[in-house]
Every structure is written in structure tokens, then in C-alpha cells.
Write a sequence for this structure.
């Protein structure tokens, strides 16, 4: 899937959005892939990711299927990165999300040194990825450009909601939930920090960027974006 | 997906989390209900909502009391208090909805070869898109609109008429009854899905023609289209071939997936049993 490619926004809005992901190609570099994908995620921890995820189990914030009613008052909102690493048990896509370009660069450098043999991609602004590659001494192999949304774009929600919901490229974050969180933050019913945790739990592969989402909610609280 | 009316307390939380807005509170039965024609079986409600296992009668009573007193309880918005969602066994052709909508579903249920594609994400080991070629991903339905196969067929038939080759391991390609005409099998044409990606590869010289063709057809389709363009960089890591074409056509690409070229063939032999990546993402 092209699930990190078509995030809505211009290059400037991706300044705090760097998704570095690893994938195996079937029959070519998937042998012992789980071990190497776990190593990829473990290496990311050192650089302070804002999310980790695998496409089978989700990100560092997940729903709870046996929630205690006290959770309505006191809910754990701490991302559990180690659970993502421990839970990866099949060949899939592993992703680390950073809000800071330098951290992403350092991580890519480290991945290069580790020579895991995995296919590694950076999903961010074109310039941001170029800078990461340059810093790591890497020449880009291939590029997949997003040309944005076309067709019946009148069916799309407003830009703030669209920016939030497209951070789960699989489409699991509903526009109405994103809109509800924008409204709740405006009303003061939830903080941006709290609101992003609700959205993040619906992202089924863990590429949702809570730091960028928090910034967007913070901006939308003050004015319509 | 079904919601058990015996368990549902009509809290309304689920009406916000459905990407297709297919869940509503039925005013007659006063329970959340799924519009099955609009539901794409993505399981966002079932997988994404946290679940409590409270007694429905107790919750309804509390809600009635709060309502009478004009009090608003401010619960967490991503919780189903009574675990009322009841997934159903899906038969063909409805099962296709889930295969194209729930990213966690492996392909075995439909015979479709995976929901995702590797595109240029693994180009460093597959060499799928070579210099002088352009790979296109034409995605329908995301974000949050959805699409039916008969709409996608308009594009596949037009592409087939133009003589382009469909990516063999793409899920939509496996559902074509005739690759030469681009026709999709009849029994799934009215199925609604979250999204699907038609994937093709053409020589660089045809890139502009393909984009213009997509423009022509997307006007006839009642959903959103997201176009992705994959290219192999030159030895210096630059793309001086495709970007100028895109810019000439008025595009100013902002975002891209960049394959940094660290992949290499590591399997002992090429003939090893292949493992299907689950929910191929990226």
C-alpha cells in the first residue's frame, strides 16, 4: 500500500514528519526477516522516535480490549515501543516515525552501517529525504512521488481534518473522528496531547505521527486552518 | 460487520470512527446500526475501538438518568462500553470488501495476491522499475470516500485500450477477467471497498500520455484518485527524467517515498518459499 505517500500537506508541513520504514521483498530478502525487522526497530529506539509500528499489529499506542471503567478517568497514554518490537512476529513492514530530521538522519546512518539487507525507504518531503540521504552518504535509488488527490476532491473534508486523517494512509482514521478531536480541542474538552492518542489507536500500522498531529491540533485551536 | 442490538447502548461513539460513515443510531430501535451497503468491512470499529464489557442494562439505565437530569457524561470517545460489535463470516463476493479495506487481512481469504504492492519500495532488490521506465500507482477511494469496482473498471478498461501492462502481482490485476480489455469480474463490480490501487509500468516516453489519460477518466469516476509515480534514480541519485514531465504538466510534488538503496538479496536461494508480507505498508 502507499500508506505513507499520500499524506496531505506541503513540504513545510512535513518538517516534523519523517517515516523511515523497512520492508522485505518476497523471495529475495525475506529470509530471517523477522529478526532483522526487529533489529531495525530496536535500533530506532536510540534516536527517540515518536512512533514505531508494524503493519500487522499497529503502533506504540493500541486499543485495549478489556478496558477497566476507571480508564475513563485515568488512562495510560504512554506509547509502548518495546511492545511493538516484541510483538513483531511475521514478515511485514516495520516503521519508525521521527519528528526531527537530524534524528532521522542519524537513524538512517546507523541502519546503513548495520547493513541489514532490508529495503529501507524514507517517506517525507522530497527535500527532507534528500537531506537525510546526503547526511548518510547515500545516493537515492528510487523515488515514488505523490501527486496528491484528484478526481472528486469535493468529497474530501477540510484541510485540517484531511491532514490528520491521512496520517493513517490505510484510511483507518475516520474524518468524523478527526473532526471531533479538532472540535474537542477547541472546546477545551481534551488537550491536543490527549486527542492524538485517540487517533493514533486507529492507525493499524503505526505510521501515525502524534507529534505532527499535536502541532496541527494546537494550530487549529487558535484559528481555522 | 454487525452490531448486536442486545448489547448496544446507543452511546454513539462508533458513529464517529467509521471511515465510511456507515454507522448510525437507528431512531426506531434506538441502537447503533451498520448500513451494510456502505460498510466496506474495514473493521476499524472492531479493531480500533477499545472495549469494556459492561452490563448493557446498567449502562442504559445510567444513560437515561443522566439524560433526564440533562447531565453529560464525558467518556472516552474511542470505547465501546459493551463490546457490541459482532463480526460476521463473510462469503464471496462480500469478502472482497474486507480484503481491500482491512489492512491486516492476509490475502488467503480471497485468492487475491496480497492487498499491498511493493512498488518501488523494494526496487533496489527487484529492479522492477528501471531507468527509462515509470511506474504508476493509481489509487481510488482513499481517504474516506471509498469506491466500487465498476468505477475502477472505467480506468482499467481505458488503460487496457491504451495497451499498457498491468502489474501482475497487484490485487486488482488478479480480479481482471480479461487483462486485454481491463474488464473486472462481474460478481464483484458492485462491491464497495475502502481503496484499490491499479498499478502499471510504461516507458518514460508514455508518462505524459498516461497522466492525461488518468485525468480524462477520473472526471467520470465518483470518488477521489491519488496518483503515485515511481522512478529509478540515476547513478548520482537524481531524477532528471520524470520530475520535469510532472512539472510541465503542472504538478509540484511535495512528498515522496525515497528508496535509499540499502536492500540486497540475502536469501540463500531465489527458490525459497516466499512469505507474503502482511499488510504491506509504506
Amino acid at each position: 500500500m502507499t500508506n505513507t505517500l499520500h499524506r496531505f500537506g506541503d513540504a513545510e508541513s512535513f518538517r516534523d514528519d519523517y517515516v523511515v520504514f523497512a520492508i522485505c521483498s518476497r523471495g529475495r530478502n525475506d529470509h530471517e526477516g523477522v529478526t532483522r525487522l526487529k533489529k531495525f526497530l530496536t535500533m530506532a529506539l536510540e534516536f527517540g522516535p515518536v512512533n514505531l509500528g508494524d503493519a500487522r499489529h499497529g503502533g506504540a499506542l493500541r486499543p485495549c480490549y478489556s478496558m477497566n471503567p476507571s480508564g475513563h478517568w485515568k488512562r495510560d497514554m504512554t506509547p509502548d515501543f518495546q511492545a511493538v518490537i516484541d510483538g513483531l512476529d511475521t514478515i511485514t513492514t516495520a516503521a519508525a516515525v521521527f519528528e526531527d530530521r537530524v534524528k532521522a538522519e542519524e537513524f538512517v546512518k546507523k541502519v546503513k552501517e548495520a547493513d541489514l539487507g532490508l529495503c529501507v525507504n524514507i517517506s517525507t518531503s522530497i527535500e527532507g529525504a534528500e537531506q537525510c540521504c546526503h547526511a548518510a552518504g547515500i545516493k537515492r535509488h528510487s523515488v515514488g512521488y505523490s501527486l496528491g488527490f484528484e478526481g472528486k476532491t469535493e468529497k474530501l473534508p477540510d484541510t485540517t481534518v484531511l491532514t490528520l486523517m491521512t496520517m493513517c494512509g490505510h484510511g483507518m482514521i475516520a474524518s468524523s473522528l478527526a473532526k471531533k478531536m479538532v472540535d474537542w480541542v477547541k472546546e477545551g474538552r481534551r488537550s491536543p496531547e490527549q486527542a492524538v492518542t485517540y487517533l493514533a489507536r486507529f492507525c493499524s500500522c503505526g505510521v501515525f505521527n502524534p507529534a505532527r498531529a499535536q502541532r496541527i491540533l494546537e494550530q487549529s485551536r487558535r484559528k481555522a486552518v | 460487520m454487525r452490531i448486536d442490538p442486545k448489547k448496544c447502548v446507543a452511546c454513539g461513539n462508533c458513529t464517529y470512527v467509521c471511515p465510511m460513515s456507515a454507522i448510525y443510531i437507528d431512531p426506531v430501535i434506538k441502537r447503533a446500526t451498520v448500513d451494510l451497503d456502505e460498510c466496506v468491512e474495514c473493521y476499524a470499529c472492531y479493531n480500533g475501538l477499545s472495549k469494556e464489557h459492561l452490563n448493557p442494562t446498567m449502562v442504559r439505565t445510567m444513560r437515561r438518568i443522566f439524560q433526564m437530569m440533562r447531565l453529560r457524561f464525558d467518556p472516552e470517545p474511542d470505547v465501546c462500553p459493551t463490546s457490541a460489535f459482532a463480526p460476521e463470516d463473510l462469503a464471496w463476493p462480500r469478502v472482497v470488501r474486507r480484503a481491500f479495506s482491512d489492512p491486516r487481512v492476509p490475502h488467503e481469504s480471497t485468492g487475491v495476491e496480497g492487498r499491498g504492492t511493493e512498488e518501488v519500495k523494494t526496487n533496489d532488490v527487484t529492479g522492477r522499475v528501471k531507468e527509462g521506465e515509470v511506474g504508476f500507482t493509481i489509487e481510488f477511494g482513499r481517504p474516506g470516500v471509498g469506491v466500487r469496482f465498476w468505477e475502477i473498471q472505467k480506468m482499467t478498461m481505458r488503460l487496457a485500450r491504451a495497451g499498457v501492462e498491468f502489474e501482475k502481482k497487484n490485487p486488482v490485476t488478479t480480479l481482471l477477467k480479461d487483462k486485454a480489455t481491463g474488464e473486472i469480474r462481474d460478481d464483484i463490480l458492485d462491491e464497495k471497498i475502502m481503496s484499490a490501487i491499479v498499478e502499471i509500468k510504461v516507458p518514460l516516453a508514455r508518462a505524459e500520455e498516461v497522466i492525461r489519460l488518468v485525468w480524462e477518466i477520473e472526471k467520470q469516476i465518483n470518488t477521489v484518485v491519488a496518483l503515485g509515480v515511481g522512478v529509478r534514480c540515476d547513478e548520482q541519485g537524481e531524477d532528471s527524467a520524470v520530475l520535469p514531465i510532472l512539472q510541465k504538466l503542472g504538478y509540484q510534488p511535495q512528498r515522496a517515498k525515497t528508496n535509499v538503496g540499502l536492500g540486497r538479496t540475502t536469501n540463500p536461494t531465489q527458490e525459497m518459499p516466499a512469505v507474503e508480507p502482511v499488510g504491506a505498508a509504506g
Q: What stands out?
A: Confidence is low (pLDDT under 50) at residues 109-113 of chain B. The two ends of chain B are 27 Å apart (CA to CA).
